[in-house]
Amino acid sequence: MLYSFLRWLQSEEIQGVELALLAAGPLLSEYQKVAPTHVLTSRLVRSSEQLGAVMNSLGHPIAVPSAIQGIGLRGIARSEIVMANTLASLSTARLLASRSGQNGKPSELVCHVHELDGVAERVLPASPPDRERLLSSVDRFAAASEAVAEMLVNRLGISSKQVTVIEEFIEAPRPSSRAVSLARRRMVGEANRPVILNVGAMNHRKGPERFVDLMATLVAHPSLPVGVWLGGERGSSVWLEMEHSIAASGLHDCVVLLESREDSASYIAAADLVVSTAIEDPYPLSVLEAGAAGKAVVSFESGGVIDMLRAAGQAELLLPIGDTLGMSAAVASLLDNPRNRELIGAQLAEWVNATHLVEHIAPALWQVVKG
Amino acid sequence: MSGSEPTAQDPVIWIAVHDLSRTGVPVLLARLLQASPAQQREVVHLVAMYGGPLLRELQSLCASVTVLEPSDRRSASSAASLGLITLGMGRAGEVVRHSAWRAKLARRPKPDVLLVHGAGAWPVTQVVSSKLPVVLHLHELETALDRCITRPEQAAAFQRAQQVMVVSAPVAELARNRGANSAKILMVPGCVRLPGANLPESNEAESSAPETDSVQWVLGAGTPGWRKGTDRLAAVAHALQRVSSPAQVGWVGGRPTGADASAVGRTDLVNWIPESADPWKLLSHAAVFVLPSREDPLPLVALEAGLYRRAVVAMPTGGLPDLLADGRGLVGSRQDLRWFVAAVEQVLASRAFAEDLGQRLHEFVRTHHDVDVIAPRWLQALSDAAGR
């Protein structure tokens, strides 16, 4: 989503935006095309963080002086506004903001929060005073969904005046027909079987074990659906658990695990139905992409997907978290009725394409950033 | 400890265990030690990688307990070791950690045999003589074993072990597949203490749950997570609610945390009950005892359910299909949530059926899983390995 936002800024000819990445990744070259990009490889920053972690673990917490850590950031230009793109990057963003801006005044700090409670708990400082200090350094928050805003205000003690809901947005996916047919072949070969797709990192928060259970309840469906999990790293501990579960459920012919791919849009376009088995997800982009592609979506009720399906008039496709048999019934009903599936897909496409593309929401996010 | 003094014939036994939590592996160890003669317990020294709530009980059951690492933070040696490993100096990191462990164990009597009670304690073999006889009591199935001992190291581990005790037939098969010689494998399953003629009846136990007499409870127990299949309880609870069943679904062992925790504020029909020293005060009231496990070699709670004549519905994993065969419980032919929910509903619908299942399981557990039968076999295997 950040990449989409940067592209929008570029298209609007908005100048002066630089990007600081905590680590390089597969999208680095794409980022470099749309904004001056720095990768914080500073050993000093990392070493000081490691030192802090080791001392904490020994029961002797120390605060590494920000001045020392700041040395690692000196290659980055001073700015009047610093935006943390996640809670996880807020500490570093605060260091950047703690240096005075170009005009000598302190930089304003904005945090775009894409996390819900479980992840927030993990990435924020454990010590309440440290956590409060970090959060109170933020001038404005953009929350990725109503659920995220509720967490910030009700559980992290942020004033509601500082929080604006800026829902996730996407660029309209336009996979080539060749990419779509290739994705289809990777998922089901030449078989004429419906594909139920779940896109997400392979961790328990995304519910891959529930996805396997879901597919086990659908093996007897006459359409012989294939479940595809797109995301994760082959050989990771959860991946191995899923391989075990697939074997134990006798689902070798019914469930396919595919590693994370950048062209998830092709897989979504090639699928017949998209599900989200996440038990905590602020606003899954894959669900927006599925909507934009005209695919029906069935999901557990967590985060922004609740807002999306309700707004599109499809609240019955939301199931309580963990109600795998309820989800199975909803999926089976859509498999039984392709016409209804298409109708729902069309409604979602209309809603996403009218409200949640980058051009609809990026201006509001930019407004929050500018203050 | 009291009792007669150990003799020169009694081998000094070190028992390594990963932790002293109130979970199946440490609980079984306590149970086996409790059933062992006091004289033999005098020569047992426990080496726990981490502590836990069973520490005090185990201290009273053996000559010494050494806890190698603190549970709430990293020790200095562990932090240094981790630092070295992070810097790519893995071998040096291991040396630092093992040196600290050896120092902690230096004052313990020299062992004649090391029992590794659960594969999670395998790292302790690194700090004893390579000539010391090692017995591995395997309580793990595939994914758990792979986490404890890396796949490439498993064959060497099974060769190093003089004897491999296993808790169920699938565990034995796994050990064989990973390099254990069949002749080394000995079945030492989980066990329960039978309280003589006064076997507990469900209505004798006190309950810590409200309205246990008027509400049908579907209960399970264990450490929440993928392995125990605790996520499936929500599916059971929602399915029961859909058919307007008044039954309540609960889990004793705490609420899922971390990546397993559901989004805050969303509907959760499951009653998450904290772990307790005596979970059967509540569990003995279960109308159905559920084992939704994805991987479980032979859970002690299944045997305990038999002790309390509870009807058990289980997913097929580890030794459960054998335990629950012949009408001793309901067990699926594959991991199938729809079947599981239907089986729970079937038991809830007929008290007579539930009582029949419970009684059959009770008789089987009494015959095959009595700690007074298993513990001598266990001790004898350790003596044999020590060459006494």
Commentary on this structure:
The complex is a heterodimer of chains A (371) and B (388). Helix content of chain A is 47%, strand content 13%. Chain A has 371 residues and is of the alpha/beta class. Chain A folds into two domains: 2-169 and 359-370, 3-Layer(aba) Sandwich (Rossmann fold); 177-355, Rossmann fold, CATH 3.40.50.2000. Chain B has 388 residues and is an alpha/beta fold. Chain B folds into two domains: 13-191 and 370-386, Glycogen Phosphorylase B (Rossmann fold); 202-368, Glycogen Phosphorylase B (Rossmann fold). A seven-stranded parallel sheet of chain B has the order 3-2-1-4-5-6-7, with helices on both faces. Chain B has a six-stranded parallel sheet with strand order 10-9-8-11-12-13, sandwiched between helices. In chain B, β11, α11 (300-307) and β12 form a beta-alpha-beta unit. Classes of the chains: A alpha/beta (371), B alpha/beta (388). At the A-B interface, α3, α6, α8, α10 and α11 of A face α4, α6, α9 and α13 of B.
Q: Low-confidence runs of chain A (pLDDT<50, min 5 residues)?
A: none
Span of the ends, CA to CA of chain B: 23 Å
The CATH topology of the largest domain in chain A corresponds to Rossmann fold
Instruction: Label the structural class of chain A.
Output: alpha/beta
Helix content of chain B: 25-40%
Gross morphology of chain B: globular
Structural class from helices and strands of chain B? alpha/beta
Shape of chain A: globular
Biggest β-sheet of chain B: count, sense, barrel? 7 strands, parallel
Oligomer state equals heterodimer
CATH class value of the largest domain in chain B: Alpha Beta
- Which series of helices and strands of chain A comes N to C? HEHEHHEHEHHEHEHEHEHEHEHEHEHHH
Enumerate the strands of the largest sheet of chain A in spatial order, edge to edge or round the barrel: 9-8-7-10-11-12
Number of strands of chain A: 12
What portion of residues of chain A belong to β-strands?
5-15%
SSE arrangement of chain B, N to C: EHHEHEHHEEHHEHEEHEEHEHEHEHHH
Q: Radius of gyration of chain B from the CA trace?
A: 22 Å
Q: Kindly report the greatest chain-chain contact and the residue count on each side.
A: A-B, 45 and 44 residues
